[in-house]
Write a structure and sequence with these properties.
Strands 2-1-3-4-5 form a five-stranded parallel sheet, sandwiched between helices. The chain has six helices and five strands; from the N terminus they run βαβαβαβαβαα. It is 48% helix and 17% strand. Helix 1 links the parallel strand 1 and strand 2.
Length: 134
C-alpha cells in the first residue's frame, strides 16, 4: 500500500533520482518531471488530472521555472501542498513562495530525513493519505 503520490519537479536528473529513491523506499509513489512545463503536463494528464498528495519543486529550471509553476500548482491543486527543494533560494523567494502557500523550503543537496519529514507533513496536511489508500 502506498503512502501517497508525490510529483517531483527538478531539471537535475541526479536530484530527481535521489528524491525518488528516498521517497519510494519510504513507501511513496513518485512521478518525475524535468521542468515546470513538464510538471504541469504530468499533473494535468488530459481530462484526468493526477491525485497528488504533495509536490516537490525546484526553482531554477528551463522552460518554466518554479516561480512560475508553483502558483499554477497551488491554483489547480490547492489540496496538494508544495515543498520547494532548491540550491538557489533567496529569502525574497522564500517569502514570496510562503505567501503562495508553499509549506516547506528545503536546500540542496537533499537531506533525506528533512525531505521525508516535509513530505509526511504535506501528505498529512493534504488529507489525502486515507483517500489514496482506498
Amino acid at each position: 500500500m502506498s503512502l501517497g503520490r508525490v510529483l517531483v519537479v527538478d531539471d537535475d536528473s541526479d536530484i530527481r533520482q535521489s528524491v525518488r529513491l528516498i521517497l519510494t523506499k519510504a513507501g511513496y509513489d513518485v512521478i518525475e518531471a524535468a521542468d515546470g512545463q513538464l510538471g504541469v503536463a504530468q499533473a494535468k494528464a488530459g481530462d484526468n488530472p493526477l491525485k497528488l498528495n504533495a509536490i516537490v519543486c525546484d526553482l531554477q529550471m528551463p522552460n518554466m521555472d518554479g516561480m512560475e509553476a508553483i502558483p499554477y500548482f497551488r491554483a489547480q491543486f490547492p489540496s496538494s501542498p508544495v515543498i520547494v527543494l532548491t540550491g538557489a533560494g533567496t529569502v525574497e523567494n522564500a517569502s514570496i513562495l510562503f505567501k503562495e502557500g508553499v509549506i516547506e523550503f528545503l536546500s540542496k543537496p537533499v537531506d533525506a530525513p528533512l525531505l521525508l519529514a516535509a513530505v509526511d507533513k504535506a501528505v498529512n496536511q493534504s488529507g489525502y493519505r486515507d483517500d489514496f489508500a482506498t
